[in-house]
């Protein structure tokens, strides 16, 4: 039975014998010139992969000499690799010769090996190969929101992977498998601790533990980063202030940075959540975000490390619109950040909702490199219970046109630096991993880790192709089942949106961000109620962000405003994001707002029943353990989809005073 531990690196024996034999003829040896730890990882991974896929041990030799029929791994420099960027790879093969996997760096070779293995895992031809891959984004990171006590903020797959209490003496072999999985996607950095950071991570005790993890990740081309607690100089340094302009504070950070680099020479840098949701920051000392970020950049100046400063800010003010906050605070600082600073922006203006418009910061900070923060962990998309394939969420944002430099100025082009010629590019995914045997709780959520990594490398890949690859590598190669499962994946997000937050609703949550609580009209903060977001009243529903309301739309270019600012033509998925719409208003579907809402809630919940039926059809094609696990989760999802539907409908009905439309109404009980 398959417990899901091996993720998409299963390397099960290829059942198609002629195909397997053809592969084997081209993979009689692995020739490796070079001895670096990364090259060694590459050769070992290839050997492990071939052992599984072909069922034989392929020897690693030092030099191919005149031999043909093997795989040659080279860190090359000549004309061959001229078109490659630093971490790019090239696969080439000709009949009667060898397969070459080349890169300009050892990491490039490692990524090439995984690309070659992917060819075999998905049943592609490997003769006449001519395939090159260059990452479009330079820093491709996972962000772990993990705490010292092993808990994970918004983690749904067990505890933290990092066993701080065992480190540095005991090194869980799982750390290496984690690194392999990330390297297979091209992820080259990981922030190991929560953005709501504990200062303890900067103590000598913890730096030593973190350094031990860094030693495991290094041979896989992965650098370690830390989230920092801004007042650390006070909390663990004994200083009276954490004012970023104070000379003693600057010195403290410089010394601390030196201490880190002594143990971790390739340390990646700092991630900072400051003056956000109550976390302290430079504003506590009447300084701004740039002052804070630049102070850390200065500490990192002697090293190859960066500062990732988050733009997730908003005020507890019932009259302001949270949507506008990051743009208001950050755009005036454009041009003031040190060259080592990148500002990390969540994909949407609020907080990882199942559907959000893109953050209006994208495109509006031409002089400051901006990075993308996506949430892989399913905080708002059903935890590890609901099956939501996230690639369409990521793609939707990346492909949206900001119009800041005319048509075609997509968010992706902001992030990959091509629009404003950013000197630095980065992307981050909030991780969904934990100590569950299958890493992600719901084994279908492995696809979200996979898809995030693949898109971080190349945002032009399609959601369908990524799903197809993942299914073949992870679940089955039986064509009908592959199709059924990818189809399910592709529809899963819209189904979730339909029963959870249709037509542009958002944030109907209680504190745990799971249970429906659209009726939550009071909270510790006025902007943490549900009604702050959906604005239901006797007239209608939705947040007016046009000129008659908060005018958040004015933060976008006129072309974008034009798409969204007219309630008659605003696409329905965004309608209630931007408009307060009367219950009785006829929409483009021919139904009134109320009837359309009910239709979405009901068909959404019913569609989970459809998902269950589709999944039942693949039983013979997938592993029984995974099949049973997903079957159980879908049953829960169905129950909870009905819970969502009923909560929303019954609550909104208290305002709309409309009956549930006939097709969905239960007959009266007699
Ligand atoms: C969300 C999440 C928090 C998290 C925050 C952040 O609001 O619920 O747990 O700390 O995002 O991204 O900083």
TrEMBL record:
Protein name: Xylan alpha-1,2-glucuronidase
Top-level EC class: hydrolase
The reaction(s) this protein catalyses: Hydrolysis of (1->2)-alpha-D-(4-O-methyl)glucuronosyl links in the main chain of hardwood xylans
Organism of provenance: Spirosoma pollinicola
A single GO molecular function term of this UniProt record: xylan alpha-1,2-glucuronosidase activity
Alpha glucuronidase N-terminal domain residues: 7-116
Pfam families, alphabetized: Glyco_hydro_67C (PF07477), Glyco_hydro_67M (PF07488), Glyco_hydro_67N (PF03648)
Keyword field contains Hydrolase: yes
Residues of the Glycosyl hydrolase family 67 catalytic domain: 120-439
EC number: 3.2.1.131
Transmembrane parts of this sequence: none
Record-stated family: Belongs to the glycosyl hydrolase 67 family.
Oligomer status and interactors: Homodimer.
GO biological process: xylan catabolic process
Record keywords: Carbohydrate metabolism, Glycosidase, Hydrolase, Polysaccharide degradation, Signal, Xylan degradation
InterPro entries, per database record: A-glucoronidase_C_sf, GH, Glyco_hydro_67_aGlcAse, Glyco_hydro_67_aGlcAse_N, Glyco_hydro_67_C, Glyco_hydro_67_cat, Hex-like_dom2
């Amino acid at each position: 039975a398959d417990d899901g531990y091996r993720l998409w690196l299963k390397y099960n024996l290829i059942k198609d014998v002629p195909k397997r034999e053809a592969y084997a003829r081209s993979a009689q040896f692995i020739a490796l010139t070079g001895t670096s730890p990364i090259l060694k990882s590459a050769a070992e991974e290839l050997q492990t992969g071939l052992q599984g896929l072909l069922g034989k041990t392929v020897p690693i030799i030092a030099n191919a000499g005149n031999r043909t029929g093997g795989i040659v791994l080279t860190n090359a420099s000549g004309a061959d690799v001229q078109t490659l960027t630093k971490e790019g790879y090239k696969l080439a093969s000709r009949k009667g010769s060898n397969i070459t996997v080349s890169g300009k760096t050892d990491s490039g070779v490692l990524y090439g090996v995984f690309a070659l293995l992917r060819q075999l895992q998905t049943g592609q031809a490997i003769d006449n190969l001519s395939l090159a891959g260059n990452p479009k984004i330079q820093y491709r990171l996972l962000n772990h929101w993990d705490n010292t006590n092993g808990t994970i903020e918004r983690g749904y797959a067990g505890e933290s992977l990092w066993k701080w209490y065992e480190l540095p003496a005991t090194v869980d072999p799982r750390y290496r498998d984690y690194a392999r999985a990330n390297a297979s996607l091209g992820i080259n950095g990981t922030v190991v601790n929560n953005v709501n950071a504990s200062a303890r991570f900067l103590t000598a005790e913890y730096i030593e533990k973190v350094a031990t993890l860094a030693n495991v990740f290094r041979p896989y081309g992965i650098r370690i980063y830390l989230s920092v607690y801004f007042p650390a100089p006070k909390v663990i340094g004994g200083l009276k202030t954490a004012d970023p302009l104070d000379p003693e504070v600057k010195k403290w950070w410089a010394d601390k940075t030196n201490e880190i680099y002594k143990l971790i020479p390739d340390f990646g840098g700092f991630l900072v959540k400051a003056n956000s949701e109550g976390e302290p920051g430079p504003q506590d000392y009447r300084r701004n975000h740039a002052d804070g970020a630049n102070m850390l950049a200065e500490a990192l100046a002697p090293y190859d490390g960066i500062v990732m400063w988050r733009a997730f800010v908003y005020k507890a003010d019932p009259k302001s619109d949270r949507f506008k906050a990051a743009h208001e605070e950050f755009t005036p600082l454009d041009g003031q950040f040190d060259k080592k600073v990148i500002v990390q922006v969540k994909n949407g203006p609020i907080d990882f909702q199942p559907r959000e418009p893109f953050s209006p910061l994208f495109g509006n900070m031409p002089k400051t490199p901006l990075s993308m923060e996506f949430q892989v962990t399913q905080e708002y998309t059903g935890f590890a219970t609901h099956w939501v394939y996230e690639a369409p969420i990521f793609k939707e944002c990346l492909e949206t046109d900001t119009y800041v430099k005319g048509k075609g100025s997509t968010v992706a082009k902001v992030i990959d630096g091509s629009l404003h010629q950013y000197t630095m590019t980065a992307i981050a995914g909030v991780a969904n991993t934990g100590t569950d045997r299958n890493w992600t709780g719901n084994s279908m959520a492995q696809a979200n880790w996979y898809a995030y990594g693949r898109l971080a490398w190349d945002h032009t890949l399609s959601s369908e192709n990524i799903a197809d690859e993942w299914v073949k590598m992870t679940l089955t190669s039986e064509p009908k089942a592959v199709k059924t499962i990818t189809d399910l994946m592709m529809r899963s997000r819209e189904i979730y949106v339909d029963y959870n937050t249709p037509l542009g609703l958002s944030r109907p949550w209680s504190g745990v961000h799971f249970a429906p609580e659209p009726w939550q009209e009071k909270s510790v903060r006025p902007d943490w109620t549900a009604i702050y977001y959906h604005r239901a009243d006797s007239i209608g529903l939705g947040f007016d962000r046009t000129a008659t309301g908060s005018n958040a739309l004015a933060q976008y270019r006129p072309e974008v405003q034009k798409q969204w600012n007219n309630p008659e033509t605003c696409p329905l998925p965004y309608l209630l994001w931007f408009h307060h719409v009367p219950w009785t208003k006829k929409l483009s579907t021919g139904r009134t707002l109320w009837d359309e809402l009910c239709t979405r809630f009901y068909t959404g919940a019913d569609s989970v029943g459809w998902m269950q039926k589709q999944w039942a059809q693949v039983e013979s094609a997938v592993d029984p353990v995974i099949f049973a696990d997903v079957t159980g989760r879908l049953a829960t999802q169905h129950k909870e989809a009905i819970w969502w539907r009923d909560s929303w409908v019954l609550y909104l009905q208290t305002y709309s005073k409309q009956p549930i439309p006939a097709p969905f109404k239960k007959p009266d009980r007699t």
